Amino acid sequence: MKIAIIGSGYVGLVTGVCLGHIGHEVMCVDNDKKKIQSLQAGEVPIYEPGLEPKLKELLAKKRITFTTSIKAATQSSTVIFISVGTPSKKNGEADLTHVENVAREIAVNMDSYKLIVEKSTVPTATGRRIERTIRLNLPKKFRHPDPKKNGLDFDVASNPEFLREGCAMEDFMNPDRIVMGVESPRAEELLRDVYKPLKAPIVVTNINSAELIKHASNSFLATKISFINAVARICDLVGADVLKVSEGMGYDKRIGRAFLNAGIGYGGSCFPKDVDAFIRLSEKSGYSFNLLKEVRQVNEEQRQYFLRLIEDKLWIIKNKMIGVWGLAFKPDTDDMRNAPSLEIIRTLQHEGAKVKAYDPKAMDKSKMELPGVVFSKDAYAAASGADCLLVLTEWKEFLKLDFKKVKTSMRQPILFDGRNLFDKKLMEKTGFEYFGIGRGKL
Ligand code: UGA
Q: Which residue, among 397, 398, 408, has the nearest Cα to 430 in the 3D structure?
């Protein structure tokens, strides 16, 4: 099938490459010329395991191409995915300017039937708005004095994406479910054809419900994280271990162990933005989603809680050398958007600390964001001479280090584990003063 993807960001690019991999002919569009040139040369601007080699393979087989022209992509495809950015406005609402612009540009270039599929995370009723925008902007030859009767057949569908950064390809190829918000048999048939090679339960519903599934899923996962973070706070007060609490809860199939990792809270380009957008969407629709407001509040407090812990145990912050392991908002990515490390490091710097940091992939992207931080060549160098060490991203490679060596190189062996990555007892046996989140009385 000939497929166009408009917007070559994280979701667009992974979608394009994976759809190429399962046998479609894909044209990816972006208005950033430089990005398109480097993608056409096989260079991926983000770190995502497996993405670059697969892109190179598809380029060689000519199964994927890149362009800045929405016209070319529209006219050469039957199915067009919209996966442009939907950033937050000041009030938390999603800014849909890019979606509207793309819908209009698709419309003016349409020459035959198209299925336009929204992949970006958007509030409910966006599909309807896209449909209307397209109908109002069709080429003159297809227009009727009554815009409702404008004559070129097309469908709009919603097909939200649930991939996670760091394992995006794997998530795309093995989804828990595929959601199809469709309002005509033709749209459903085409979307089913697109995903035919994938094995997954398919949920077919209307566009509004599909849009809501995405918001509700991300917000529910954020709720799980804030719930366990609140439990972790209680663990620290009463002397319980949140790891055991999550394990004990997680065996209950109705609860599940996933997304019950307590720590410095969720970050990234999705959860913070999507929770805000869902709160706003609910408010606009007439419901005050107080539960989600509390989820957001607990998440914001986690970073402050961690900072207070450091201030308490390290005592004086001014002029202390603080070593940091991990900067990215989660492991296996170089993404720094809304990374909890940013607020934590900036606050410590503001209080007069000197910071040395190491991240396996995210240091390049951190440099602009974190002036004054010394970026170390490896984890040992970041710890050496430090008055304490903070773990802000749970990269697996940190587990393999020689901890005796780390300990002896530090000025004071104090370890603040913001992701509960390490075994508390083992670290204490090695000689560290160890502080995790929710690991017992502080
Ligand atoms: C999230 C969802 O998991 C995807 O299903 C969704 O498609 C994506 O948003 C999106 O809307 O595009 P992502 O933001 O890539 O994916 O990363 P997650 O693995 O969900 O982690 C988000 C944040 O939650 C990270 O900062 C992570 O450290 C934190 N987290 C996650 C916890 O603090 N505790 C946990 O138990 C799990």
A: 408
